[in-house]
Amino acid sequence: MKCIIIGLGTYGRVLADEMSALGHEVIAADSDASRVEKVKDICDAAFQIDACDELALGVLPLKQVDVTIVAIGSNLGASVRVVALLKKLGVKNIYARANDYVHKSILQAFDIDKILIPEERAARSLVRQMDLGVKTDLYRVDANYCVYKFDIPKKFIGLPANELHLYEDYNLKIIAVKRKEKVQNFLGIEYNASVVTNISEGEDAPLEEGDVLVCYGKESDFRKLCRLL
Q1: Are the C-beta atoms of 56 and 50 separated by less than 8 Å?
Q2: Rg of the Cα atoms in the chain
Q3: Which helix (H) or strand (E) holds 154?
Q4: Which pTM was predicted?
């Protein structure tokens, strides 16, 4: 995938870093030279431009990428102007970050492809963890089904994945097991990273402390599991 990220604050910088790490072609832009400097080595290209200026915005290959992400959050005026200019220039597949519901409401008028509210997602994640009593990350597929990633409880340690009976008892399908392993970065320095293991629901390798389960199913069924944990 080829993408342009406009706005390199914390949110935009993390997007650039993660998407580049996954092998996507990333072009980044910001008016702040220091922010551009921080991402120039991880992105395919980085531009210091004022994206609120239509002529400056035109230097970006807007018609040659799969998606353009406006990651500006705190400056409402700049965010709205950039989105308006992108629409004027006929850019397709526009994603934009909204700082709050007023920001979101204004962006909705432009009929863009996706509005991102990271603060809302973070808040919902915190409430979910407090409510369920389990540290979990959730990706919602639709109104009922989700993908869940959660630390295994102590009672699962030493048990093979196929003895958890999550599908038989809770209709939850195990997609993967993640485990911390020693890996090396490009400098040859070792560090702990969570990687997907070869353990699957049909194998009898025991789960270890610190393992993370990735499951798919209904939120109501996941709540049933959490209550029993």
Answers
A1: yes
A2: 21
A3: none
A4: 0.61
Q: What is the distance between the alpha carbons of residues 91 and 2, in angstroms, rounded to a whole number?
A: 14
The CA distance from 189 to 86, in Å, is 42
Task: Give me the residues paired with residue 97 across strands.
Answer: 116
95/207 Cα distance (integer angstroms)? 39
CA atoms within 13 A on the CB side of 87: 15
What pLDDT digit, counting tens, does each position of 45-74 carry? 999 999 999 999 989 999 999 999 999 988
At 199-214, the pLDDT tens digits run 655 567 788 888 888 8
Sequence-distant (≥ 6) Cβ neighbours of residue 49 within 8 angstroms: 29, 30, 31, 56, 57, 59, 60
CA distance 177 to 103: 38
- Strand ranges for the chain from DSSP E: 2-6, 25-30, 45-48, 67-70, 94-97, 114-116, 136-140, 145-151, 173-184, 190-196, 212-218
The single-letter code of the amino acid at 102 is V
- Residue 161, C-beta contacts closer than 8 angstroms, at least 6 positions apart: 174, 177, 199, 200, 201, 202, 203, 205, 207, 213
Under DSSP, is residue 139 helix (H, G, I), strand (E, B) or coil? strand
Q: What letter does residue 153 receive in the DSSP assignment?
A: P
48/102 Cα distance (integer angstroms): 28
